[in-house]
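Q: Could you fold this chain for me?
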Amino acid sequence: MMKLIAQNDIDRAKWDELVENQPKTLLYHQSLFLDPLAEKWMLLVDENYSCGIPLPYVVRLGKKGLYTPNFIRAIDWLGVKPNDFELKKIKEIILKEFDYGNILLESKVFEYAKSDRVYQLLTEPFKLNDQAKRSIKKFEKSNFKIIMPELNQILNIILDDLKVKVTDLKMTDFERFKNLFSQYPKEKIWSIGVEENNQIVGGMIFIYWQNTLHYVKGGCFENAKNKGSMYAMMLKAIEHAEEKKLILDFGGSNVDGVRRFNLAFGATDKSYFRWSFDNSPWWFKAAKKLKNRLKK
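A: Sure. Below is the predicted structure, expressed as structure tokens.
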């Protein structure tokens, strides 16, 4: 029997055991990811924690809405997939609990629409396109060099770069990102950086997860970027993944320039899906429309 469990009542040891024992599970399902990054979340699971799904949500004007937190690509159903009858009951539970929802899903468990987002995966030997080759040659001729820094030496550089690239992120998003890495096991984090004249000017953060080296975020100063530093760091990461016999997950992006960067190494697009519903009252829908209009 499936039941909803509030965030404070979740048995995190049981949930994380389910997450870790599933093949091809998204790292975003870990409680270590959901606790710092989701505003609120709950679980829909069976009594034995043998199947279920995390449900990140917000409460606005007294109405509960499912959403996909920033820095979390998507969620998915874990464990045995429900049959049609079970799925109907599961959807009834979710629609009764939440007034509206707009959530990204890795697979087609619920009603879905193909989202406008893709992520990139490198499963074959890498192959550089001409742009990547030119950028790496620039780097090799420059005064910059690859280093293996501590996470705290590159974190603020990455966040400052992110503030420029993604303007709709709020200060709370950056605090949540910092909280994620203050709690995450250090032995599962792999970082790489670039320096010039003993000054660190850029870096990238990766996480070891199952058979994957997962790219989280990266950034660098503009002069280092212009000399191909991002390409050089990613190439080094790919070589590291190949040495460890790992798949490289680029994380994906809705930004076309980032997608082109990922594809420059021979990665391929993977689509994921969106489940949207809105059973909120008319006044709440009107308030949301007004808020979106004011944003523009």
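A (continued): Residues 2-115+272-295 form a domain with the Aminopeptidase fold (CATH 3.40.630).
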